[in-house]
Amino acid sequence: MITRLLMALAVSVSLSALTALPGNAQDADAPIQQVLQDHAEIIIKSSRRTIQPAIDAVRDSDLDAAQLVLEKWAAREMYVNEATGLFVYAEEADDDMLRIFDFATAAEVGEAPEDDYDQIKPNSGIRGLINSALVKFQLSDPDPANRIAALTSLSRNGNESHLPVLRASIEDEPDADIKARKERLERLLTISFGSDTENRVAAIEYFAGDLGVDARAALNPLVATTRRAATDVPDDMNIARELRVGRDLTEDEAYALLVSSDLAPARLTKDAQRQALQANIQDATVGGVPVAELSDPAARDRAYTALVDAGLAPAAATDVQATEAVAAHVFYETYSERDAAITTAAADALKAIELKVGVNQFLDLSLDALSLASIYFLAAIGLAITFGVMGVINMAHGEFIMMGAYTGYVIQQIVPNYTLSIILAIPLAFAVTFAAGVAMERLVIRWLYSRPLETLLATFGISIALQQLAKNIFGTQARPLTSPDWLNGQWAINDIVAISNIRVAIFVLALIFLGFFLFLMKKTRLGLETRAVTQNPKMAASMGINPDRVNMLTFGLGSGIAGIAGVAIGLYAQVTSELGQQYIVQSFMTVVVGGVGNIWGTLLGATMIGFLQKGIEWFNPSNTLAAQTYMIVFIIIFIQFRPRGIIALKGRAAGD
Predict the structure, then answer these.
(1) In the chain, N or C terminus with fewer CB closer than 10 Å?
(2) Among 145, 215, 222, 205, which residue's Cα sits nearest to residue 185?
(3) Is residue 12 assigned to a domain?
(4) Which DSSP letter does residue 249 get?
């Protein structure tokens, strides 16, 4: 009787405690609560190895509260009431209190002390599993950004359980682009996790020739092989090929494979054999073999075999035994994928992809070469005027490029808007370097016409002086010439072919200057006078043309174009006092190879050098300096066979 009274009292106290808790306002019979209670033990323990059934149960419950549970669980905001065992989610309140919410209704229940609740703290591995389960709800989220985020998550961590969920979401997807991404991802997951051979093969064939990195990532594991050894080639494995000892693998590699497969003991080394024999000498014999005979390798092998039989040494194979073991086994490679139809389809798809990748790599290399050629053309077009037309060897041409780049840098310090500053920098760089070129021609070059060696030495000295002047003004630290936002990033054609927007802009600028130069030389008076002076200065002077004035303007024009080239080059290269020296050699090579005095020759010369340099770098990507050396050697050989360049100058000037 007393026992019954005590039990009743205990029940009464427990009910009173439950009434005082916020959890009392919860519906313990709510379906979502029942799902959680069915897996309460593994949820509370939170072990990554055992938690998956609980996550799957919540995800597949088709309850409205399932997504809320998973989100709060992953965010470490899920708690369990110590007294009632009910699961809730909560947020911190004041004074060590929690604000409690019911999963079934998402309504606030009230506040309770933190000590009454245990926080469920899933580790990063469990959170990853929960986030993977959330994909089911995110794929149908009204917000397109959330659906895209779910697809991104699936592309990284998708598994077999996601396939039906993803397939179910495709038909009702309203956004065409997102639907296409879903269909692509569904095929990728089918390749890796599909259970039907026909569907997997169809998905594989869809990606034949596809350049996406994700397609190759899905296909490559299907054709991955493992080397194996056996007494006979098995019939129940997907064999990639049989290996021949001496052709596909060495005898040592073959025996090592036998050892790793537990088909043979480790090879006996000379040191191990000697140590074992020395440790077992008894009465001047080892294993029944006299010590005096151990100088013979065959006798040592017999002695060691006797020790192994007696249990005095570990089993090991001699060279003869290793050779016999290799001859008694077969060696082969097997696919990780056991279905031969799958591996055949994957191999065919990868061959198609490899061919297309090669074509696109060539296209990408060609774009890089054209980009480099446009840079060389911009750098050399001014030199084509001063050297090609006037015959002046201007070693300071690179410094005009450097002056143009520094002009752009100064303008950006004054005008913070990068787009406007670049627009202003182009004409100002032309003006500054045009004036510098005119001053150089009037003060130095005009006195040295027809004296190429003196011109070379004088302009080389001016080059050094201009570099030092730039160091005194701007210092030795590299200065950035920042490109506008619309020039950042790259123009990506596919996963292989891409080119930066700055390079595209420089290419367009080179075309603009090609058109400008052709118009100037063919349609303007200055161009007509320049061509006349180039062909025959004395006859041009007799016709009323002032050769000195033409030479001054021509030299200034060439210098001004170099300044504009400096602005373009400075957008992707650090601006330093040595900037021009990086392009002076290539500029001279461009003019000489293309044909002195011919703008089309300069264009072809820049294209040839750009493709040549990129081609050599492709064969030797780790050594750019070597690539440039090979390029110079090639050009020297080229000039030996065609000294006047690709397009030789015609007329009287050709004989100068």
Answers:
(1) N
(2) 215
(3) no
(4) B
HEC-encoded secondary structure of 11-23: HHHHHHHHHHCHH
* 202 shares its domain with 249: no
> How many domains are there within the chain?
4
Is 603 within 8 Å of 377 (Cβ atoms)? yes
pLDDT recorded at residue 219:
92
CATH number at residue 379: 1.10.3470
- Tell whether 361 and 480 lie within a shared domain: yes
DSSP 318-345: -HHHHHHHHHTSEEEEEESS--HHHHHH
> What pLDDT band is residue 64 in, cutting at 50, 70 and 90?
confident
Closest CA to 159 of 127, 118, 195: 195
Handedness of CA 635, 640, 641, 647 (dihedral sign): positive
Residues 258 and 213 in one domain: no
Same structural domain, 374 and 501:
yes
Residue 8 domain-assigned (yes or no)? no
Tokens of 462: 């001016």
Question: Do 395 and 315 share a structural domain?
Answer: no
Question: Which residue range is the domain that position 598 belongs to?
Answer: 357-655
Q: Which of 565, 615, 564, 572 is nearest to 587 (CA)?
A: 565
DSSP string computed for 201-245 = HHHHHHTTT---HHHHHHHGGGG-EEEEEESS--SSS-EEEEE-B
Verify that 488 and 428 share a domain, yes or no: yes
Specify whether 438 is located in the same domain as 581.
Answer: yes
DSSP one-letter code for 174: -
Rounded Cα distance between 390 and 441, Å, is: 11
Residue where a domain terminates, one of 202, 223, 244: 223
Mean pLDDT in the chain?
A: 84
What's the CA gap between 424 and 411, in Å, rounded? 7
User: And the tokens for 537?
Assistant: 């200065």
DSSP letter for 195, please: S
Q: Do you know the residue count of the chain?
A: 656
Q: Does the reported pTM lie above 0.85?
A: no
Identify the helix (H) or strand (E) that includes residue 387: none
Q: Among 223, 244, 263, which residue terminates a domain?
A: 223
Q: Are 110 and 242 found together in one domain?
A: no
Integer Cα distance of 4 and 498 in angstroms: 83
Beta partners for residue 406, in sequence order: none
In a domain, 618, yes or no: yes
Query: Contact 481/414 with Cβ under 8 angstroms?
Result: no
Q: Chain-centre distance of CA 226, in angstroms?
A: 28
Residue 274 in any domain: the answer is yes
The single-letter code of the amino acid at 446 is R
What span, in angstroms and rounded, lies between the C-alpha atoms of 531 and 517? Answer: 13
Q: Read off the pLDDT band of 26 (50, 70, 90).
A: low
Position 639 pLDDT exceeds 80: no
**pLDDT tens, position by position, 396-412:** 888 999 999 999 999 99
